[in-house]
Amino acid sequence: MTTAMNVPPTIDVTGTARIPFARLFRVELRKSADTRAGRWLIGVTAGLSLLAEVIFLIVAANHTPQDVPAKFGDFVAVSAFISSVLLPVLGIMLVTSEWSQRTAMTTFALEPKRMRIILAKMLAGTALTLFVVVFALFVGLVCNALLGVLRTGGADWTFGWSGFFGFLITQTLAMLGGFALACLLLNTPAAIVVFFAYKWVLPVLFFWGSSLMNWFDRLSPWLNFQAAQGPLYEMPLSGKEWGQLLVSGFVWLVVPLAIGLWRIRRAEVK
Amino acid sequence: MIKVEGLTRAYGSFLAVDDISFECKPGTVTGFLGPNGAGKTTTMRVMVGLTPPTRGEVTIGGLHYRDIPNPGRHVGVLLDASAQHAGRTGREVLEIGARTMGLESARIEEMLELVSLDPREAKRRVRNYSLGMRQRLGIAHALLGDPSVLILDEPANGLDPAGIRWMRGLLQGYAERGGTVLLSSHLLHEVEQIADEMILIGNGRIVARGTREELLLGATGGVATTLVTSLDNHALSQALTERGLVAHPAGGGLRVTAEPVEVGRVAADRQIVLTDLRAGNEGGLEDLFLELTADTQREGHPQTTMTSEVSA
Ligand SMILES: Nc1ncnc2c1ncn2[C@@H]1O[C@H](COP(=O)(O)OP(=O)(O)OP(=O)(O)O)[C@@H](O)[C@H]1O
Ligand SMILES: [Mg+2]
Q1: Residue A69 needs a FRET pair 20 to 30 A away by CA distance; which of A114, A232, B293, B296 works?
Q2: Per-domain residue ranges of chain A
Q3: Residues A172, A193: contact at Cβ < 8 Å?
């Protein structure tokens, strides 16, 4: 071939910038919602939050404030229960769908620095969490205002910044909890099962353990990540509460995530 | 352009790729041939950083794949066309690629047209794609960033005959413009017509390499063979034997250990009408391929005379 001699056997990369992180983030956000499964998950999370708050509104409107007290914070708590179940699933799917659908091959071929992709996914998950949180707050706002009109005695707007940040942080941590397990297990059903075992079975075990063993009673607040998140709704936290939050968070969030990232970095992508 | 040096990939004590080295030059098509499980895909996966090598390394244009900024703009990769999200539409698959690489969306339309996926098919979900459509989508994805290097694992897999011919032309044109192409296949005849150089791999090791002519020469030990068919094969066979040439019946004609021109001359002298006359080494190349990789053939050492006659 004549051309073979004219073209040097190197590629000129001087004119190519590496992929900006903002672009990776936008692409990951798009990928979370460009399939039916993704759109449904986000839609159902927002839809159920809406439904739960509306049901709570109907119940409250038909009772006196003495029977069913309803503050702004209560509306938000109703929706927080729903989203704390579904946001982790969203966090899981962000990671595991790349493995179950085998798109990781394409994703990592286009950006071989895998940690950039994972970080972009993590931020995409956080952005979606923020969206759900803002949506739930907005619905809560409307519902609470409606309740003020429907029920004598007006609306109780007790919520405060502490409630807002508590809501935002706990939901983000819930999403990240799923995300971390997904990185560790790289498998959708396994990550979902383990997450809900952690969320619903573990607190029961903690409770039994504490009531049976004295030493465990002293240890468990430092390991029970979910219990440690409770005070976030009533800031400021004491030094001890911060400590318990950080220690238990390290165990349940940082450790699985770190092992998961190490695994993804070295994994053979098939 | 692509440089593989002493590459080894082990799974436990099993060597999927065993100390292989080769180079692909710009402006050429390199065919990577071997039976199932020979290590082709593994080698290609190491090239693009999806599988870490156990020993050795691969550079593309002097760089490790992970050091190429925005690699999709330089290296087009098709490893497994079915590795796409079943729930995405074909167009969306390209959209994601284009956005990641930072390309205009006009490029998507261009590529869809190039691989002949019409707008209706592009709107369908990949789940509902046929094998060939997936393959076309994969090729479109590999070409999206207008790369100068192409790494394609069995790109003809699932394509119809027209599609295979189209792809052949596409890759040839691509190499003529200075691109570097590495494509793998199990099928010799699929590759030998476009590949400037072929690399035969079996059991993770390179068993032969070279241009078609070089391999052919090696295949027949430097002796030319000719396949000939005439209206009177019996008479021709006798005439050839009288000239001291060895002729054996093969299929509907004869296989002669000689250059086609010699056989033609004998036939002309005896006024025997030829209906077919050609160099008969294609079968030889296929024999060579099967023989060299015989250890890894699942069917054991194959009896090839029949098949080579059929394909010749
Ligand atoms: N993760 C793994 N663990 C163990 N063995 C593996 C692994 N990946 C690949 N192999 C083995 O490595 C060998 C080479 O596989 P490879 O996919 O590279 O073959 P190939 O030449 O592409 O074959 P085909 O033509 O069938 O696609 C096979 O024997 C395969 O089973
Ligand atoms: Mg293969």
Answers
A1: A232
A2: 18-265
A3: no
Tell me the CA–centroid distance for residue B41 and ligand 1, in Å: 7
Q: Which long-range contacts (CB under 8 A, 24 or more apart) does A257-264 make?
A: A257/A176, A257/A179, A257/A180, A257/A183, A257/A184, A259/A184, A260/A180, A260/A181, A260/A182, A260/A183, A260/A184, A260/A185, A260/A186, A261/A115, A261/A118, A261/A183, A263/A183, A263/A184, A263/A186, A264/A114, A264/A115, A264/A118, A264/A183, A264/A186
CB contact under 8 A, B26 and A17: no
Local structure of A49: helix, strand or coil: helix
Instruction: Express each pLDDT in B91-117 by its tens digit.
Output: 999 999 999 999 999 999 999 999 999
Is pLDDT of B308 > 50?
no
Residue to mutate among A2, A11, A108, with most B CBs inside 10 A, is A11
Q: B72-81 b/e with 16+ CB inside 10 Å = b? A: bbbbbbbbbb
**What are B194-227's pLDDT values in tens digits?**
999 999 998 999 988 998 878 877 666 667 788 8
Identify the H or E element spanning A81: helix A72-100
Minimal CA separation from B15 to chain A, in Å: 16
pTM comes to: 0.87
Handedness of CA A222, A226, A227, A228 (dihedral sign): positive
Put simply, the answer to whether A16 touches B69 (Cβ < 8 Å) is yes
Query: Contact B287/B311 with Cβ under 8 angstroms?
Result: no
